[in-house]
Design goal:
about 180 residues, about 20% strand, six-stranded parallel beta sheet, about 30% helix, 6 helices
Length: about 180
């Protein structure tokens, strides 16, 4: 089985929004960096996904300069694709599925910003396309929506994905799985 890490929307556009101070984990770059290092050490594909809204005049409009990886995130290596999407999931408006199919990828590890929106939607679409999905909740973040706290949103997202669309994991669990077995 071939695995790819999909880093979704961990970009400066979110920090440029007025509600960034409401984000549950402003240090999201740290767990994502751990996943990237883990994937690279295992020889797995890393794909960077950035949300873009060309011509919108907002923080996701590429001409404003915010559609770039979040400061503090490890840099993409030259052979790691950076995919620009204009829909909530990372598949519909990109060539992501073609790339993954060409490389024989069968399992996706997903992380990023907006736990319940772009990350969850990518997990669901990926599952529908036949990929095994690992949703790394502690390498996602979101902000409260209406009466729901960020924690409640994360809990709901885990509940609706678990054993239906994805395996729920933590960064530490994936690191432990990757550790060499004692002899």
């Amino acid at each position: 089985m071939s695995r790819a890490l999909i880093v979704i929307d961990v970009q400066e556009s979110f920090r440029a929004r007025p509600d960034w101070e409401r984000i549950a984990n402003p240090g999201i770059a740290d767990p994502v960096n751990r996943l990237v290092r883990l994937a690279r050490a295992r020889g797995e594909r890393v794909v960077w996904v950035l949300h873009s809204e060309p011509g919108s005049g907002g923080v996701f409009d590429p001409v404003l300069g915010h559609v770039r990886p979040l400061d503090g995130l490890v840099a993409a290596l030259p052979d790691e694709p950076v995919v620009h999407k204009t829909s909530h999931n990372a598949f519909t408006t990109t060539d992501l599925q073609r790339r993954l199919t060409a490389e024989g990828v069968t399992e996706l590890v997903v992380c990023g910003i907006r736990t319940e929106q772009c990350v969850e939607t990518t997990a669901r679409v990926g599952s529908d396309l036949g990929y095994r999905i690992v949703f790394v909740t502690d390498a996602t973040t979101t902000e409260p929506i209406g009466p729901l706290s960020a924690e409640a949103i994360v809990e709901r997202t885990e509940a609706v994905l678990r054993d239906r669309f994805a395996r729920i994991a933590t960064v530490a669990e994936l690191a432990a799985e990757a550790a060499p077995s004692p002899v």
